[in-house]
From TrEMBL:
The lineage of its organism: Eukaryota, Viridiplantae, Streptophyta, Embryophyta, Tracheophyta. Keywords: Glycoprotein, Hydrolase, Signal. GO terms for molecular function: hydrolase activity, acting on ester bonds. This is Uncharacterized protein. It comes from the Eukaryota.
Amino acid sequence: MQPPVCILFLLISCFHLSSSTRTFDAIFNFGDSLSDTGNFLIANANAFPAPNIGNTPYGMTFFGHPTGRCSDGRLIIDFFAEAFGLPLLPPFLSRNQSFARGVNFAVTGATALDVSFFEQRGLGGMLGTNLSLNVQLGWFEQLIPSLCNTTEDCRKLFSKSLFLVGEIGGNDYLVPLTFHRLTEEQVTAYVPTVVEAINNATERLIELGAVNLVVPGNPPSGCFSGILTMLNGTSKRDFEHDTGCLKKANDLLKYHNRLLREEVVKLRRKYPHVRISYADFYKPIIRFARSPGKFGFSYPSLKACCGGGGPYNFNIQALCGLPGSSACANPSAAMNWDGWHATEASYRQIAASWLHGPYAHPPIMSLMKD
């Protein structure tokens, strides 16, 4: 059976650089589990029990072994590196690695707000890490002297680099919702504070010399089996009629995305010399959930490929990588990997839609034009 034409176009275009563009010299990435390439695993190497993402079948599709990526293979950031002819980004906490062509500061479980925000409200207990966006920015500032010697050299390097500020913010909402049982209204109240933190981080990078930036919104987490299981609705009205996704989670993240996009517009006005792309994480996954077959997914879109059973193949007691869980035979046919994250096949298509459109505004390739 031949793959749909739209899939073929995305796979080809994802790695095509036109003659009218230049490539980036480096990529600097900040975020959480959707782009972490190993920092969380390194930071928790001696933890007991060990993090489940350090076990098979994580990494099975591309790397053949776990790498600290929360997927069966590559992430969006990996496809970006390949598209720009750069090495896959090493995690900042790795040793004996060159960061000359870029580095990944993202950490699984990271929040946009500092941990103190949650601890002051009695919500700190279930956070996966204290390595927030602010900590990651501190790492970057700590690294700068090893990347360039003078202010002019740094500005020259950063003007030819790509900076990704997120995706981040999902953990700020989903941990209080799922583990602390806050209401949607309680969590919605601090969405502007989360968006402000992301905006401030973006502005901080601009002040340090960043010129080409991507600010992704949040995906529709109400379409992932972990949220569907832990926040399961009680009536038909709790679910979107065309996708089956959980409305209250998706409505919250739509609100986040709307505010974030408004802040991006303001930053463009304030810094007219800077090129900022807003990357839409929400719409492509909604389309996968609505019409999975159209995008090459034959496995049920709301069901985790890797999990421990139940209606959505998600069991908090048997997470992917732990005893009692198993992976589906063909992850490339699935949208949903482990209940919280997408598969490599999903990330490949989203990466293409951000590089060339229509789900990045403007498309990231357009940032490279001279």
